[in-house]
Amino acid sequence: MKLCYYFANTNLTIMSATLLFVFVIIYFLILLGVAKIAGRNSNNMSFFIGNKNSNWMLVAFGMIGTSLSGVTFVSVPGAVGRDAFHYVQITIGYLIGYICIAYILLPIYYKLNLTSIYNYLETRLGFKAYKTGASFFVLSRTLGATARLYLVVKILQVFILDSMGVPFWGTTLVILAMILLYTYEGGVKTIVWTDTLQTSGMLLGLIICSVYILSSMDFTAMQAYTAMESRGYATIFDTDVNSKSFFLKQIIGGAFVTLTMTGLDQEMMQKNISVKTLKDAQKNMITIGITMLIVISMFLFLGGLLHIYGRMVSVNAVGDDLFPALALNHMPPYLSIIFILALISALFPSADGAITALTSSFCIDLLGMQRNQEWDEAKKKKIRQTVHLSFALIFLIIVMIFKWIDNKSTIDLLLKIASYTYGPLLGLFAFGILTKRSIQDKWSPIPCFAAPIICLILDKYQMAILGDFKIGQELLIINGLITFIGLWLISKPGIKKI
Fold first, then answer.
1. Average pLDDT of the residues in 416-437
2. Which of 96, 189, 214, 450 is most buried, most CB within 10 Å of its CB?
């Protein structure tokens, strides 16, 4: 069933929708005020890397919000009915991945004093490899961020703006305009502070909603967990080797997802390399890894509560629809407001960081802004702002495409996108770090583009090729491995000095 079904018979009035809209505007004005204060005296370097003067604790807290996003807020709890607590397996892998980033990738980035992490590929492998890696990041982050954006816009549209006669594209445009207003000038320097505020809002919403449901059902946390166990929701480890959610597949897959979606992602590393020292940046990574394990476990617990509570109030919504259907139709008005504000708080850190990072990567990596000595600071700023606006327009178009697709589990969609688009980045960086070979750079795009195509064929026909064995998170690893092998075939002994 579609989300719209659950709101079709709601007694929500235009007045109450307007009230929610007012709270959204007030929240945004507070956000804009924080951004204005944080973004004073900003320039191109503060936009790109925050002048490398960011506090690691603020960066860590804000990056939690970026890593989680609205997808975690809605989609992870919604998936508990189907997958139980299996997502914990992936989160354990995340922690391993964060440790690897801290002690393998970050020393390289800080040693080379990078603004864009993809400059490493140029230094180590060559110009074509560098451009290819940056292009895959632009593709990956654009698709991932717009999928997250679509989920939140869909909820806001149905609950608030449909009753006001605002079209879906108009809602998307308004959200993007809000994001542009507070990132247009300050970039990373602004985002470090606004993400901190928004992560606080998201976590507060998680706690309040959980406490309310426990109170409504007259459960203690332990009683609720026992009820989840009896319904099969609390199972963490899947021991079926052939299953997509087999624990070793998901732990290893989760580690590589983090290595790619965080360690090889300009958006995430852009914030991290804005920290003053390597040691502080490493503390940032480890803190995020531990906190993510705790917070996602809390979201899964909330998911179990939502499924039990949904049965109690006779709501049959599933997947991404479950939390909104309960929060907006079966909880007090103040909780509806908290849910909407927490959802927006979850959305903005992922969307604002994505647009800023895409702008940075496109300007630095694809346009070569830092290399061009003919452009003065004023021209660079104008170009940067034009690119910033262009990505907002691209986001609008792709969100409309996701509306047409209307996938019911956004978390599954995101992980699938990552498997295809981050694989070549994994292969490129792995080859550069793990080997002492140089490649024929002009041929480097071929294995990078061939690997996702091979993986698509393997995924589509896996039953015929692999029988009962089902490919899960390891598709990303396979993609990276194929890229690695392809690069090896066009390489020769002897490393380019860095």
1. 88
2. 189
Q: Tokens at residue 249, please?
A: 């597949």
Pick the closest to residue 318 from 126, 485, 80 (CA basis): 80
Average pLDDT value for residue range 78-90: 86
Q: Could you give the dihedral angle defined by the CA atoms of residues 63, 68, 69 and 73, in that order, rounded to the nearest 10 degrees? A: -140
CA distance 130 to 118: 6
Determine the Cα–Cα distance for residues 272 and 76; give it in Å rounded to an integer.
25
Q: Which DSSP helix (H) or strand (E) runs through 102?
A: none
Q: Using the predicted structure, report yes or no on whether residue 348 has a pLDDT greater than 60.
A: yes
Query: What's the CATH fold of domain 3-432?
Result: Sodium/glucose cotransporter (1.20.1730)
- Sequence-ordered strand ranges (E) for 160-232: none
Backbone angles phi, psi at 492, to 5 degrees: -145, 160
Write the CB contacts of 255 (distance below 8 Å, at least 6 apart in sequence).
Answer: 93, 94, 96, 97, 100
The Cα–Cα gap between 118 and 137 comes to: 9
Q: 82-86, 192-196, 246-250, 327-331: lowest mean pLDDT where?
A: 192-196
Taking the C-alpha atoms of residue 118 and residue 270, their distance in angstroms, rounded to an integer, is: 11
Which amino acid is it at 387?
A: V
What is the pTM assigned to this prediction? 0.76
- 49-55-57 Cα angle (round to 5): 120
Q: Specify the range with the lowest mean pLDDT, choosing from 8-17, 90-99, 357-366.
A: 8-17
Cα atoms in the 13 Å half-sphere on the side-chain side of 43: 6
With beta carbons less than 8 A apart as the criterion, state whether 493 and 435 touch: no
> What does the pLDDT read at residue 40?
56
Tell me the percentage of the chain whose pLDDT exceeds 90. 11
Measured between alpha carbons, how far is 80 from 409 in angstroms, rounded to an integer?
Answer: 11
Q: Which residues contact 137 (CB under 8 A, 6 or more apart)?
A: 118, 264, 265, 266, 361, 365, 425
φ and ψ of 53, to 5 deg: -135, 25
Q: Which of 120, 123, 91 is nearest to 107 (CA)?
A: 120
Using an 8 Å Cβ cutoff, are 441 and 126 in contact?
yes
| Pairwise pLDDT comparison (372 vs 429), residue with the higher score | 429
pLDDT of residue 98: 92
Measured CA to CA, the distance from residue 483 to residue 129 in angstroms comes to 12
Domain boundaries, the chain: 3-432
Model confidence at 13, in pLDDT bands (50, 70, 90)? Answer: very low
Please, which residues have CB within 8 angstroms of residue 77's CB and are 6 or more apart in sequence?
299, 300, 302, 303, 306, 322, 323
Helices and strands, counts by H and E, the chain: 23, 2
Furthest C-alpha separation in the chain: 71
Q: Write the single-letter amino acid at 153.
A: V
CA distance 415 to 201: 25
